[in-house]
Amino acid sequence: MRFILLFALICSIVVPVSARQPRYDFNDRCQQAYHAIMQLRLQTGIGLLEAEKRENPDNLLPYFIENYADFFTLFFNEDAGAYAQQRKMRATRLDKLAEGPEDSPFYLYTQAVVKFQWALIKVKFGEKWDAVWEVRKSYITLKDNERKYPGFLPNKMILGPMQTVFGTIPEGYKWITNILGLRGSIKQGMGNLSQVIESRDPVADIFREESYYYYCYLKLFIENKPEQLWDFVEKKQLDTKNNYLFALMVANLSLNNQKADQGIRVLEERRPSPEYAHLWYSEYAMGLMKFERGDADAIAHLEKFVNGFRGKFYMKEALQRLSWAYYLKGDMTKAQYYRNLVPQRGNMETDADKQAQKEAKSGKWPNAVLLKARLLSDGGFYTEARDLLLSKKTTDFSQVEQKLEYAYRLARIYDEMGNDSAALRLYDATIKIGTNRPEYFAARAALQAGYIYEKAGDKQKARTYFQTCLDMEGHDYKNSLDQRAKSGMLRLDGK
Questions:
Q1: What percent of the chain has pLDDT over 70?
Q2: Residues β-bridged to residue 23
Q3: Helix or strand or coil: residue 437?
Q4: Which DSSP category does 407 fall into?
Q5: What are phi and psi of 241, to 5 degrees?
Q6: 417 with 402: CB under 8 angstroms?
Q7: pLDDT for 211-263, tens place per residue?
């Protein structure tokens, strides 16, 4: 009898233990935590994850979701001290996630996403080769998971952006993707991502808003379809007031699509609450857009960014804008002060930062009229920019690069205002004069002319202009312009 009772006692202990094996349970609390973190309510999300760990220690998904929180803070704020402290969590989380059942689609998926996020983080901290290998590991893991679970749509949400970008790598860097076995195309990648967005699958629905984030960036920067992008943002009614990540995304896309008014409004209309994480990028974006609009407080936002941001990306460009702001105010002491800081701070990973460094070392200041016209045009204030330029003539500018910029700026304004014939005439003049010069005006003119002909359905002329852009060497913004021209060529080929 005692033996039977003892056996029953053992069973009562063992059975619950065997039933509580590690698993991936995207329960309501985990979904709430994930959505909170995706809105940048990081501490709220982390608090929910800690509660889940205490009450359901066998659930592994909290370790996956909390990696998002580290990703956002490290990627956007670039704090080297925080990176040194948190980088060990990569291996810790991967080890934890590998404890789960291998017959779950989340087994490989969660590990692949963690690797992908750390690849992007490592780029920000200068570990580029490590980042490339992380991307490769993530890509291969996702492809394995897709073969095992072809109906698991989150695979396509991450594979889609990868494949889209891989397909647009400039020819000079193609050997890297070939060696690493990274394959893709715009058509394939956007097709995969669209499946997630359009699906009614309950698992895909969890990740729906994250898929919107990738889709919007690819629509603008790879497909070059801003009208479709803004239609999508309006149709989906993205909550930019309560979702700070969406607000930053729309502000960034506005900054890069000549919509300063819209970007500023989105950032200003966010719901004020200490619940949201502060990302320094918002100060940078706000400062740039307000400077384009001519707002007096643009300097305050840019100074807040350069004084508070501990990272390196965008720093040289922000300092350059500050030097320009004081230059246009006539305060050459402060203008020179910020220009002197450009070589000392930041890095030259982005084309904009490279150009800021080059200008600072040249010792030359831009022509004030051309600079004002550039800022107004970049912000989407085309009428004001056009009128300012038309108050001058080419002969009013003494230097070749100024005459070249005058033609290019006026062409871009006509382009954005829908006057294609005037834009193409000035683009051709810019290309003719500037092809062998170090300024980016001729290459960008060729790219923009390609866009006009692509939109008009003249593939032959579009291809000619895209190739002209690719053929130009030694100019500013070479990498980014080449990628855009390559994307254009691929779109023409239907790839």
A1: 93
A2: 59
A3: coil
A4: H
A5: -85, -35
A6: no
A7: 999 999 999 998 989 999 999 999 999 999 999 999 999 999 999 999 999 99
